[in-house]
User: Which sequence fits this backbone?
């Protein structure tokens, strides 16, 4: 059994969150607030989800997108006023770092072109209003990253200098984020191991990214629920398409029902087999059930 090195319990409010408009001096800001005054918190283990940091990095940067994430996972911290801009800047920051890691260190072409599109949008000021606000508020480190992306794209290749500068930037940037993580020895089923406990959901997601970088992990989107999950390096699980058994069963039931529907409409098995990318004998078994 693989051990989850991130030991952390977090909570979310079961009846959800809303944006509350507040005044900060003359300025009006929106703050993420628990929907009711009653405590409906539910405790859970966020890092059972192996790709949570990647899911977080792809939140839609608008009021609804952020609320959807918060309703499922809770606030990012316990001691911050979490404004829309605060969320947007944290989502974008981890997105940039993940894309740099995947695009430059792991040479993933898709990640690089994603970065290029984003830079182009930024130059044309077409990015989301919350993003525009927070890019300027971002740290020096993030602007160094943006410079690196520009250099890489201009060169059209990753040379040794770009690679080692990127490694250094990643190291320093992630180290800064790990200051809110403590480590200790744990005991699980007679096995001693070194585990980590982050102080907040946000620092936990940076830790998850740090472990992914350090162990060169790969991730895939679940074919059913679109959630990112880690692909285990052991070959038996490498071909895994679903994040969980529940998603695999759900997808199976859906495909079987769809095959029956097509069959009842008079589609020949061969056509159904092609449409569902499933072999003919399986289709024939399904439609007879
Ligand atoms: Zn899934």
Assistant:
């Amino acid at each position: 059994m693989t051990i989850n090195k991130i030991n952390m319990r977090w909570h979310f409010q079961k009846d959800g969150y809303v944006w509350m408009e507040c005044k900060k001096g003359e300025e009006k800001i929106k703050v993420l607030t628990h929907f009711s005054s009653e405590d409906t918190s539910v405790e859970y283990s966020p890092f059972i989800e192996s790709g949570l940091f990647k899911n977080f990095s792809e939140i839609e940067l608008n009021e609804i997108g952020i609320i959807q994430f918060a309703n499922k996972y809770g606030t990012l911290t316990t001691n911050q006023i979490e404004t829309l801009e605060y969320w947007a800047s944290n989502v974008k920051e981890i997105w940039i770092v993940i894309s740099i890691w995947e695009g430059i260190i792991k040479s993933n072409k898709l990640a690089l072109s994603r970065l290029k599109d984003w830079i182009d949008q930024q130059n044309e000021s077409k990015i989301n209003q919350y993003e525009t606000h927070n890019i300027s508020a971002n740290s020096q480190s993030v602007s160094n990253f943006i410079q690196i992306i520009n250099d890489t794209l201009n060169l059209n290749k990753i040379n040794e200098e770009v690679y080692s500068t990127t490694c250094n930037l990643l190291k320093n940037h992630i180290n800064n984020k790990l200051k809110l993580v403590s480590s200790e020895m744990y005991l699980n089923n007679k096995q001693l191991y070194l585990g980590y406990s982050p102080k907040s959901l946000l620092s936990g997601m940076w830790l998850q990214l740090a472990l992914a970088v350090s162990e060169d992990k790969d991730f895939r989107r679940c074919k059913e629920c679109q959630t990112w999950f880690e692909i285990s390096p052991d070959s038996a699980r490498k071909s895994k398409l679903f994040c969980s058994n529940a998603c695999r069963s759900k997808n199976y039931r859906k495909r079987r029902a769809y095959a029956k529907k097509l069959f009842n409409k008079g589609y020949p098995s061969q056509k159904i087999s092609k449409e569902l990318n499933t072999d003919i004998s399986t289709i024939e078994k399904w439609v007879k059930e």
Summary: Residues 222, 224-225, 227, 242-244, 247 surround zinc ion (CB under 6 Å).
